[in-house]
Amino acid sequence: MTTPAPRLEAIGLKRSFGGRAVVDDVSLSIGAGEILCLLGPSGCGKSTTLRLIAGVERPEAGSIALDGATVCDQRVFLPPERRSIGLMFQDFALFPHLSVADNVAFGLTGSRAEKRSRVKELLDRVDLARHIDGYPHELSGGEQQRVALARALAPRPRVMLMDEPFSGLDNRLRDGIRDETLGLLKDEGTAVMMVTHEPEEAMRMADRIALMRDGRIVQQGAPYNLYNSPVDKAAAAFFSDIN
Ligand code: ADP
Ligand code: MG
């Protein structure tokens, strides 16, 4: 038996701005239901890596495949909407003039009844069914974040890319929403890449951490491996604040 291809596989991604490689030979793969945290200090190239995988930027070199099918290489380039990739950002605002239901249904195709039923299912899962006909301004920040999650999940993306999605949230709400979100994604078998600059968050949430510095991945592995056997002094220092 052959092993199935990883849900997401990126090989040798490279992107430069003004002659400087900000993403340099980045390779990573994520399996179904797996959470990879892309961790590193501000400016190291995390968001650019995420944008390359999403397809909103084009790499100078490298390739990206989903379930073994190439979506990007030197000849192929599928636009973001054809990649079955969901995106969540810190400031991924809801459409204020659309109801909660219409926000969640935004990326869906199909009949009105099919869309309504998927919207209901998702709002149930994020425990917001009672707000289905409400509007964003009637919801708290945490509730809006959960609507954004339902919207991102609605088209059943195979991969979810999250760029510091919880950093805008109140500390009190944050842990609960984060655990709930990642739990839901795992249940759906989504491959998750979560970008963060906080080692503590990565240690807590990741199945695997890819540690990035100056555009390169310097170490990749299970959280306890990076914590216990950092690749160098800088990596050790980065993790040393965690208790
Ligand atoms: P991170 O998300 O890790 O903070 P980014 O990927 O946003 O890092 O940025 C990496 C580097 O690339 C930074 O030095 C940033 O200034 C630079 N950069 C990102 N996007 C652009 C762009 N469109 N034009 C020029 N420089 C950019
Ligand atoms: Mg960033």
TrEMBL record:
This is Fe3+/spermidine/putrescine ABC transporter ATP-binding protein. The chain holds residues 1 to 243 of 366 of the full protein. GO terms for biological process: quaternary ammonium group transport. Keywords: ATP-binding, Cell membrane, Ion transport, Iron, Iron transport, Membrane, Nucleotide-binding, Transport. GO terms for cellular component: ATP-binding cassette (ABC) transporter complex. The keyword Heme does not apply. The keyword Transport applies. Residues 8-239 form the ABC transporter domain. One of its GO terms (molecular function) is ABC-type ferric iron transporter activity.
